[in-house]
Amino acid sequence: MLENSFISPHDVDMSSVLEFFRKYPELAATLFVGVSAFALYVADVAWVHWYVSAFALVMALILSWDMVKDIMGGAWGVDLLAITAIVSTVFVGEYWAALIVCLMLSGGESLEDYAAQRARSQLTGLLEGAPTTAHIVDADGGITDVDIEHVQVGDRLVVRPGEVVPVDGVLASEHATTEESSLTGEPLPVEHSRGDELFSGGLNGANAIVIEARATAEQSQYQQIISLVKQAQQSQAPVVRLADRVAVPFTLVAFVVAGLAWWISGDPVRLAQVLVVATPCPLLLAAPVAFLAGMNRAAKEGIIIKDSGTLEKLSRIRTVAMDKTGTLTVGHPELVGMKTAGDISERELLQTAAAIEVFSAHPLAAAVVSAAHSRAIDIPTATEATEESGRGVTGIVNGQTVQVGNSRWLNIADHGLDAEAGQILIHVARNGRWIGALIMEDTLRHDAAATVASMRDMGIEHVMMITGDGPATANAIGQRVGITEISHSLLPGQKVDAIGHTEHPVAAIGDGVNDAPVLATADVGIAMGARGSSAASESADVVIMLDDIYRAARSIAVGKRTMTVAIQAIGIGVGLSIILMLIGATGVMPAVVGAFMQEIIDLACILWALLAARPGAHEIPLERVIDPQNSQTGAGEYVSNTRI
Fold it and tell me: What's the CA gap between 283 and 240, in Å, rounded?
């Protein structure tokens, strides 16, 4: 049995060869003809030139048919020069040059395929790591393996050591350590405690854990990322149309130079010597490789770009319209301060309020309880708790009646407290006496000001805020982040109208369901997908998978960098080809040498296009752009001059 299962190296090599022939039949056929023709040439076989010439003409016929199909499909082909080069070299007797042109064209497909696989390796890695099964704990404590599509909300799941968390859930075990680089880009392990939210896609550590499913597989974070990745991989870059437009004048120049060289010299070989270095492979290869490299770079930085055409749009953005809640701010209330009566400490005030707020489902109540947990405050057990919706909660804590709510409901004065714009006061009374107030606020993201500054530094002419908040809150946030163009008190439809009257192309950034219309309407919609709504992510062209607004600015930087590299790669190919055409017109460079030189140009274009996978020389690494730990204000510091 063991002998029958053994596969020899020879069998592996043969299978690899067969797979190569199947995947790239034209390249394989060209290599076969080249090797066999060289053997015939060494053997001094008289008809070798007929053999090579016939193959080259067949390849030209195949290219002609492909070009005709492209034209019939509404796309102008860029193969005309290659076809002309093959035919002309055959008819002037330069059959080896014709074969090299065939090798260059057929080899271009394999080179592009290699570069594409390298450029999208990060995206492919997401797909390869996708979880497929889950271990459900039944009522008797037994474990049943099921496809993740069968997991329902509320199911308890075991995640074994080294396994990927299959669906979004809440940790039911005491502790867990997960590696979440595929989701957040963070290479260090993340510690979790009971009750923490775990996103699907995180890699569990050394101990088995139990989670409670809070979403189905389809609704979970990792599956949503995979869906976006598949869209990105299937997209086609519109810059290829730019290559087609470049090819038209390039073709005319090549024909003019070739025709003049033939007319002046009277030698038809000059025609072949010019056209053999005028093949359009740089135009065919440079743009797609650059775009795939740019999308790969974006994925590594936690940015999913749904289609490569978005990269071209990002490079031309003139206006950015940003939502406030959940975009410039964190999107949920946080405790930012406390005011207490003279004999009450802040710790006692928060402890008392949290004991009552545990019984409320209001977002402000959850924020109070969260603040107590974050300060390691033990929350006492309250009894007889009752809630009046929208007003407050009453209960008994340590034998005393405690009320937590607004001042109007408590029928007390504000004690000289004036809430600033965007702040809310939660008052606390004990046995009918006011003991303090909690100051709650949807806090500004620590990197919001840095994001705005970065966008302006990249040449974005207009950065505006479009929000449903009132003027006081909107203006206060705008002043803190450096935005002066503010449209406030907007309904979703009015946000769409607001970007319609600004300078285009425009990018809109948001996170909520109410942002979905404007994200879909903008030239580029950028969704904060880490905590934002699925409606916003589905409507957007770019999804930021980390809870970090600066990556919205980074996506624009990636677009600019990618377009710059793509145009440079095309320019390098065209420029070098023109130089070689002029050399070929003098007759000093044989056609076969010109064909080899064109191969070098193709390789140079591909290597240059792959530079889009790397930041520009003047771009600042993400980890150095914002450093809240070193900032006295906690807002981080932005280093200017992040030119692309």
Answer: 8
